[in-house]
Write a structure and sequence with these properties.
39% helix; five-stranded parallel sheet; single chain; 142 residues
């Protein structure tokens, strides 16, 4: 795993609260380790839709969602996150993501397995875009 703190740099996800929704134990443990090393605070990991819906109202920065959780899809969680303005990525081993992209245009899909730098970079990009949108909304013209 690539170090997020190379050269003593501040981790790129410092202060971010990231919801992890993944039903495979080893994958969720790896996601958690990668995101913590990058400075994020993990919410979860959650293994079911019911479990993942509870923290949606918390102050989340972003979310990583596995598409298929045992016998259900993560669609209800994605809908709640979108309603609350929380950016998220889909992290999946599924090959056919065209339907998903049609249902959730503009959302990023990261294919499993992905490197630590890909995951952290994708989430950092989401947070950067979210920060830019928020600062545009809160800035006052001179």
């Amino acid at each position: 795993m690539r170090k997020a703190r190379e050269g003593g740099a501040v981790p790129v996800l410092t202060g971010a609260r990231v919801l992890v929704v993944e039903d495979e134990y080893f994958i969720s443990a790896e996601l958690e380790a990668i995101l913590i090393e990058a400075g994020a605070q993990i919410v979860g990991p959650c293994q079911s839709v019911r479990e993942a819906l509870a923290p949606v109202d918390e102050n989340l920065s972003a979310a990583v969602l596995d598409i298929h959780l045992v016998s259900e899809t993560v669609a209800p969680v994605a809908a709640q996150l979108a309603e609350h303005g929380v950016p998220f990525i889909f992290y999946t081993g599924q090959l056919g993501t065209d339907e998903l992209l049609a249902e959730w245009p503009g959302r990023k899909v990261v294919q499993k397995p992905a490197s630590a730098s890909t995951l952290v970079g994708t989430i950092a990009d989401l947070l950067g875009a979210q920060t830019e949108v928020r600062s545009e909304r809160t800035s006052t013209p001179y």
